[in-house]
Amino acid sequence: MARLLLSGGHVVNSTGSRKADVLVADGSIVAVGDLASLSIVDAEVVDCAGKLLLPGGVDVHTHLDSPMMGTTTSDDFESGTKAAACGGTTTLVDFAMQTPGKSLVSSLAAHHAKATGKAVIDYSFHMCVTDLYDGATDEFAEVIQSGVSSFKIFMAYRGTLMLNDGDMFEVLRKSSALGGQVCVHAENGDVIDRLAADLVAAGKTGPSSHEIARPPSTEVEAVERAIRIARMADSPLYFVHLSTEGAVEAVAEARSKEWAIAGETCTHYLTLDRSLYDAPGFEPAKVVLTPPLRTVEHREALWRGLRAGTLGVVSSDHCPFCLEEKRRLGEKDFRDVPNGGPGVEHRMIVMYAEGVRKGRLTLEKFVDLTAAAPARQFGMAPRKGSIETGADGDIVVLDPDGTTVISAATQNQRMDYTPYEGWELPGSIDAVYSRGELVAKAGTYVGSQGRGQFLRRATA
Ligand code: URP
Ligand code: ZN
Ligand code: ZN
Ligand code: ZN
C-alpha cells in the first residue's frame, strides 16, 4: 500500500485550522491528527513544519480545448490541467460546449474525448446549452445521470451562444425538476451588441472599446431578470463571473429572501481593474474578457460580497487566447477579439496573497472560496475540498515564507502573456498532491501523464 505522511504542517479547512499530521493511503486521507505516537511504518514522510496544508483547489469555471468566437482556447486538457496542478488546483469543472447542430449528448461525448487520457487532475463538466432544439430537454436526464449535474446558459452573444428568456425559463424548470443546477452568464447581450455597433460606427474599433460596450448595468439588469425567471421556474440559479456592485446587491437581496441564488466571482475582478483598458495600442486586448474589468469601487464591493457570504465561490474563468491570436482575429474590430484570459495556474496564490496576506480574508475563508464551497456547490464534497478522513489525498503544501513571481516566461499555461506579469507575491506553492501522488513541485509538473479521473457529480 502506497502511504504518505505529511507531518507537522498547519492544516487549514474551511471549518478551522490546526497543527496536524496527515496520512494518505492509496489515494485517500486515512487519518488527520497527532500521529507521532502511532509509529507509522512504510510511509514516505514529508516534513511540513512551518508549512500550510490546504485542500487542493477546486476551480469550477474553465474552458479547455474549447471552441469560442472562431478559434479554440490555447490550453488543452494536458497543458491546462498541468498548469492547474502547478498552481495548487487539483479539481476542475470545465465547460462542455454544445456543438452547433449537434445534440447535447454527442457534444458531451466529444468533450469527454478531449479530456480522457490527457487531463492530469480530476475533472468534471458543466453542459453548455446554446441551442434548445426540439428534444434537447429530453436529454437532460441522460446528461445528469452520466454525472454532469449542471448546465450553463448565456444571456449574451446572440446568434451563437445566447438563449432567449423563454428558452432560459425552459432550461431552468426542466433542469431543476431533475435536481440539476443551472449556471448563467448574465449580461444583456442585445444592448451590448447595439453599444458595440455604435462604437464601431464611430470608428472606435480598438480593444479598449470592449469595456465601453459592456457597462455595469448590462450585467445588473441581466442578473435581476435571471433571478425573476428562476423564480418563475421554481429553480435554483448560480451566477458565473459576477463583476459589479449592483450584481452583488441583487444576489444579496434574493438570498435575504432565502431564494436559492448563488454567486461566483473570479480572481481578475478582485485583483485587476479597468485602468488596463487605458494601455496603448492593442495591449488592452489582454483583458478583453467578459464581463470586463471594472473600477476599484466595484472591486471592493466584490471583496465585501465574499466576506458577507453573498458571493460563495472564486473561480478563474480560465479562457486563454494568445495575444497573437487575439490580434489575428480582432485587430480591425474589437468585437472579433476572442473573449477571455488565462488564470487557472495563478488563482490560488493570487487569492492567498491578495486575500489572506492583505487581511481581506481569513485562511479558512480563502480555503472555503477556492476549494470547499465550489466542491459543495457542485456535488463533489466530501471527496474534494477538505482535508479530512475519507477525502481524496488532494493537498497543497504552501510555504508562507516563500515568494512567487509570476511571469509569462515561466508559467505553465500555454500562453504568451499573463495579466499578472511581474507580480511578486508572498507565499509559494511548494508541493501539490493529487490522490496522494506528488504531481507538482515548485511550479513544475512531476506527476504521471493522463492520470486525471472524470468525477461523476451528485445532484443537489
Ligand atoms: O471572457 C470570457 N469570460 N470568456 C469565456 C466565456 C465566458 O463567458 O465564460
Ligand atoms: Zn461567461
Ligand atoms: Zn467562462
Ligand atoms: Zn501563442
Automatic annotation (TrEMBL):
N-terminal signal peptide: none
Cofactor or coenzyme needed: Zn(2+)
CDD domains linked: D-HYD
Domain Amidohydrolase-related: from-to ranges: 53-439
Keywords from the named record: Hydrolase, Metal-binding
Coiled-coil regions, chain positions: none
Pfam families: Amidohydro_1
Recorded superkingdom: Bacteria
InterPro entries, per the entry: Amidohydro-rel, Hydantoinase/dihydroPyrase, Metal-dep_hydrolase_composite, Metal_Hydrolase, Metallo-dep_Hydrolases_sf
PANTHER family (alphabetical): COLLAPSIN RESPONSE MEDIATOR PROTEIN, HYDRANTOINASE/DIHYDROPYRIMIDINASE FAMILY MEMBER
Family according to the record: Belongs to the metallo-dependent hydrolases superfamily. Hydantoinase/dihydropyrimidinase family.
Name by which UniProt lists this protein: Dihydropyrimidinase
Gene name per UniProt: hydA_2
